[in-house]
Each structure stands twice: as structure tokens, then as C-alpha cells.
């Protein structure tokens, strides 16, 4: 008999949730983690640290007060690196403790060390100074996550050139920052430093910002980021970089087209590579693809049916939220309880302002030939929006033109990543305009915008919102 029903490699959100789900089914579970701390990218270098830094930047810059009191760009006080990182370090510690306790509570054995396959049912765990362990299991879940991709152009050994992990070890705040890569991570950090009053230039070869967003919201975000102080150089690539030996001299980056930009620090956010090297996948016949990603089927089985892979190691969308959901589906499948993935996955982008979406974009509906009607509500016409001073946010709902079922929800503004969930639940349950009209919302709340946007769509349909609904 195998030592465990399930061995999980990696303790990020995918590994933690996968292990906990299996334990809830009464299975014997081990989690192998190579780092001395649990939690992976989400707890230690990615999601939580960056969101905590964002809150800190908003606080230190007095950003939220600007809309209330009309103060434009004055910093509440000069931010130092230790101001910026103090809370990030505390939040990380608390989250690691939470994960440790969660795994303990579920009776999951945590084995520290680097895991690799010896054969299709055995994971070898190596840790310096400790004897090797061989863990056998009926099923294995690969949840090894990803690491920042480091394009060879950049001299990462230099303390002024960072990837997103190294940014958390900043020695001093930049006087002028170049962010290379306008994906989610690049945009979020660009906003954060701009909110602190630091001049930021964002460079990306793609001409549009976050192309998976609704076009209108991608454009709105771009406008807001520019207003915050981010200089956009979209449609350009960095051709060369010169980092002088003396810290006092600027770093020079030459863009396609020949412009030379000078900054004192650079953040390279050029995507991520899956953590699959050193996993011994050749021993089981699994071949990683581009940037090390593993290919899986709809139930997250790899080419070897009892070996599953979830989270960043399988690539897009590479979010903590989806990693946890994928882990749930994989583990239930492994133990004979087939479950489908949540039918709609939300996106939360913690730029300043936040943007969030679930369901379809207008572009996708047009491409599919689905008739739709748009309903909008501005934060400015919402009482709570007025109170919190968020004058430029927007909620946009896309309804099916005939059935009035909700097809998509897009929010830009304060609390967008929370607000989207009302729409998300409506999407998952197949609800639409009627639900929003007949629901009594707290007043004053941002959530009321769902009602306003619904009436707006109804008005758009027949010139008047009255007597439209059955
Ligand atoms: P990870 O969290 O990367 O965990 C993998 C774990 O496996 C690590 O602990 C690693 O040490 C371990 N491991 C790897 N190889 C081995 C091995 N051979 N043996 C033992 N252990 C091993 N997502 C969101 O949903 N919302 C956000 O706001 C968000 N913001 C982000 C901001 C930044 C700056 C970054 C970088 C990411 C952000 N993400 C966000 C993405 C999110 O962090 C990842 O999608 C998520 O952490 C992936 O979870 P995972 O469990 O697949 O992998």
C-alpha cells in the first residue's frame, strides 16, 4: 500500500487547497515544499505582498483623500522603503501561519525539501543536511507554480534591475522607475509607484493595455494611469540597456524607434516560467511545453492519468483564485467525485483604480453574434461613490438583448474586485435584469449601481425603463 493517497508538490494556493480538499474526503495527504516557508508566490512574493504594498502606497500618498478634499498630489509624508515594506512583511507572516494551521487542522503532513519524481508513484524529497525521503502515493498533484521570466537582455545581478520577486527587497525607493511589461503585474506596480509620486514609464511591445479587458475599460484604465503619472510607451520594445557602474549615473534604455530613456531603477515584468525543471518529469514521461508549462485535460490530468497539474505550472490565467479552483476539480476527480470547473472565472486587477470583470466582453459578444444591450452606472451618480470621492469609476453590465440575462460585468473604480462578485453570482446562476430590479440593496452602497445600470439598459432598449419587465 502507498504511504499516501495524495502527494502534493508545492504549497501555494493550488497545493494548499488541493491538499485540504483531499483531506476533507478522508484521504492521507502529504505536501512537499522546497522553501522553508509555506504559501508559494501568493503568500510570499506575489499576490499578498503586492496587494499589501498597494494599500500602503495608497495610504502613504494620501491617494484616497485626494478625491475627498481636492488635494492633488501631495504625499502625506515622504515614504521610505521601510515604511513601504513594513506591513507587507507582517501580512506575509500571518498568512504563512494561517496556511500552516490549515494544513495541520486537516491532518496534512508537510515535508520540507525539493520534490522530484523517481517513478510515476514515488516522489523523492531532498533537503540539505537531512536524509532523503521517498513518498509513495496513489495520486500526485503537481502545484509547483512559476517564477519570473528573466529576459537575457537585463543584468539582473545589478541591485537597480529587479524582477517582481526582487522588488520586495528594495534597498531604496526609485527616483524614476521604468517598468518593462504592461501585463497585470507590470501595471499594478506601475500604479503603486506612481501613486507614491515616483515618475514611472511603462513600456510594452503590445499597443494596448491588458487586451483581455473590455476595450472601453482598457482605454479608461490607460487614461487613469496616465492621470496618476504613468508615462505610457506602448508599442515599443527595449532594444538595449546600459547600467553604469556608478549608482549616481542613470540607467539608459534605448527603445525601438531610437528614444533613449533615463531612470535609476528598472522592474522587468515580462511574464513567468513554470517551475518544472528539476522535477524529474522525464522519469514519468511528461514533457513540459513552452516556458516549462504542463499540458493537462479538462480534469487537470497530465499525460499520466493519476498525475495532475494545476495552478501557474499549467499557465494562463495564472491567478491564485483559479489555481485554487483548479485544485478542487483535480482532487475531486482523482478520488472519483467528478466536478466541473466554476463556469465563470473572474479577473481582479489591482491597479489604481482597480479593474475587475467576469463573463463576456463586448468584443467577444460581437464576434459570437450574440445580441446584447449595455447598461451603465457611474460612481459619480451613486451616493456612496460621492461619499468616498470616487468620481470617475464605472460599472458596465452586458445583458442578452432578448432574455435580459446577464452576460458580462465590468467594473473600474474603488472596490471593483469586490463589486464584481454580485455580477459573478448572477452570471453563475443564470440571472439577469429582473434579479437586480427586484433586489433591495443597502443604501448608500456602490452595489446599488447594479440597479442603476440595469435601468439604464432597460431604458436603452425601449426608451423607458417603466413596464418593461414582466
Ligand atoms: P505558487 O504560489 O507559485 O506555489 C508553488 C510552490 O511550489 C512554491 O512554494 C514553490 O516553492 C513550490 N515548489 C516549486 N517546485 C518545487 C519542488 N520541486 N519541490 C517542492 N516544492 C516546490 N493572483 C491573483 O489571483 N490575484 C492577484 O492579485 C495576484 N497578484 C499577483 C501579483 C504578483 C506580483 C504576482 C507575481 C502574482 C500574482 N498573482 C495573483 C498570481 C498568483 O500569485 C499565482 O497565480 C499563484 O500563486 C499560483 O499558485 P500556485 O499554487 O500554482 O503556485
Q: Can you lay out the helices and strands and say which pair or pack?
A:
Elements: E1 4-9, H1 13-24, E2 29-33, H2 40-44, H3 47-61, H4 63-69, H5 81-105, E3 109-112, E4 114-119, E5 122-126, E6 133-142, E7 146-148, E8 161-162, E9 177-180, H6 184-195, E10 200-204, H7 215-228, E11 230-234, E12 238-242, E13 251-255, E14 260-263, E15 265-268, E16 272-274, E17 307-309, H8 320-334, E18 347-349, E19 355-359, H9 362-368, E20 372-378, H10 383-388, E21 394-400, E22 406-412, H11 416-428, H12 433-438, H13 449-462
Could you tell me the number of beta strands?
A: 22
Helix % is: 25-40%
CATH architecture title of the largest domain: 3-Layer(bba) Sandwich
What distance lies between the first and last C-alpha atoms, to the nearest angstrom?
Answer: 62 Å
% residues in beta strands: 15-25%
Structural class call reads: alpha/beta
Major β-sheet profile = 7 strands, mixed
Average of the residue pLDDT scores: 94
| Count of DSSP-assigned helices | 13
CATH fourth-tier homologous superfamily of the largest domain: FAD/NAD(P)-binding domain
What would the CATH topology of the largest domain be? FAD/NAD(P)-binding domain
Bound molecules: flavin-adenine dinucleotide
Radius of gyration using CA atoms only: 24 Å
Tell me what the structure shows.
This protein has 470 residues and is an alpha/beta fold. It folds into 3 domains: 4-147 and 273-334, FAD/NAD(P)-binding domain (3-Layer(bba) Sandwich), CATH 3.50.50.60; 161-270, FAD/NAD(P)-binding domain (3-Layer(bba) Sandwich); 353-468, Enolase-like, domain 1, CATH 3.30.390.30. It is 32% helix and 23% strand. Strands 1, 2, 3, 4, 5, 6 and 17 form a 7-stranded mixed β-sheet that branches. The protein is globular, with a radius of gyration of 24 Å. It starts with a strand and ends in an 8-residue tail after the last helix. The model is unreliable at 465-470 (pLDDT under 50). Flavin-adenine dinucleotide binds next to helix 1, strand 2, helix 2, helix 3 and strand 4.
Amino acid at each position: 500500500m502507498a504511504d499516501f493517497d495524495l502527494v502534493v508538490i508545492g504549497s501555494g494556493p493550488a497545493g494548499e487547497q488541493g491538499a485540504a480538499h483531499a483531506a476533507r474526503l478522508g484521504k492521507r495527504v502529504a505536501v512537499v515544499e522546497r522553501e522553508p516557508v509555506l504559501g508559494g508566490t501568493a503568500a510570499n512574493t506575489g499576490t499578498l505582498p503586492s496587494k499589501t504594498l498597494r494599500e500602503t502606497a495608497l495610504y502613504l500618498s494620501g491617494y484616497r483623500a485626494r478625491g475627498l478634499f481636492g488635494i492633488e498630489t501631495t504625499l502625506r509624508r515622504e515614504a521610505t522603503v521601510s515604511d513601504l515594506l513594513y506591513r507587507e512583511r507582517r501580512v506575509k507572516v500571518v498568512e504563512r501561519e494561517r496556511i500552516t494551521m490549515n494544513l495541520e487542522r486537516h491532518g496534512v503532513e508537510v515535508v520540507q525539501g525539493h520534490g522530484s519524481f523517481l517513478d510515476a508513484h514515488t516522489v523523492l524529497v531532498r533537503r540539505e543536511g537531512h536524509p532523503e525521503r521517498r513518498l509513495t502515493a496513489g495520486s500526485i498533484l503537481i502545484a509547483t507554480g512559476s517564477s519570473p521570466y528573466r529576459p537575457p537582455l537585463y543584468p539582473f545581478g545589478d541591485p537597480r534591475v529587479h524582477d517582481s520577486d526582487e522588488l520586495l527587497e528594495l534597498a531604496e525607493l526609485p527616483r524614476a522607475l521604468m517598468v518593462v511589461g504592461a501585463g497585470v503585474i507590470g501595471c499594478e506596480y506601475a500604479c503603486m509607484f506612481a501613486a507614491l509620486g515616483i515618475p514611472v514609464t511603462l513600456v510594452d511591445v503590445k499597443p494596448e493595455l491588458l487586451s483581455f479587458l473590455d476595450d472601453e475599460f482598457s482605454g479608461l484604465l490607460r487614461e487613469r494611469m496616465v492621470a496618476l503619472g504613468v508615462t505610457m510607451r506602448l508599442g515599443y520594445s527595449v532594444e538595449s540597456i546600459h547600467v553604469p557602474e556608478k549608482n549616481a549615473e542613470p540607467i539608459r534604455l534605448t527603445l525601438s524607434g531610437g528614444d533613449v530613456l533615463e531612470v535609476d531603477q528598472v522592474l522587468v515584468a515580462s511574464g513567468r516560467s513554470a517551475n518544472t525543471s528539476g522535477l524529474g518529469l522525464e522519469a514519468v514521461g511528461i514533457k513540459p511545453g513552452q516556458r516549462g508549462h504542463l499540458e493537462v485535460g479538462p480534469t487537470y490530468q497530465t499525460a499520466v492519468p493519476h498525475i495532475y497539474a494545476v495552478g501557474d505550472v499549467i499557465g494562463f490565467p495564472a491567478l491564485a483564485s483559479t489555481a485554487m479552483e483548479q485544485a478542487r476539480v483535480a482532487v475531486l476527480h482523482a478520488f472519483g467525485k467528478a466536478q466541473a470547473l466554476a463556469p465563470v472565472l473572474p479577473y481582479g486587477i489591482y491597479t489604481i483604480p482597480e479593474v475587475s470583470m467576469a463573463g463576456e466582453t463586448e468584443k467577444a459578444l460581437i464576434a459570437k453574434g450574440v445580441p446584447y444591450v449595455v447598461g451603465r452606472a457611474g460612481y459619480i451618480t451613486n451616493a456612496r461613490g460621492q461619499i468616498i470621492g470616487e468620481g470617475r469609476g464605472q460599472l458596465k453590465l452586458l445583458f442578452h438583448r432578448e432574455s435580459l440575462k446577464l452576460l458580462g460585468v465590468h467594473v473600474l473604480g474603488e472596490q471593483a474586485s469586490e463589486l464584481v462578485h454580485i455580477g459573478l453570482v448572477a452570471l453563475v446562476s443564470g440571472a439577469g435584469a429582473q434579479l437586480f430590479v427586484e433586489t433591495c440593496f443597502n443604501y448608500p452602497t456602490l452595489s446599488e449601481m447594479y440597479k442603476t445600470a440595469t435601468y439604464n439598459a432597460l431604458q436603452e432598449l425601449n426608451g423607458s425603463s417603466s413596464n418593461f419587465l414582466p
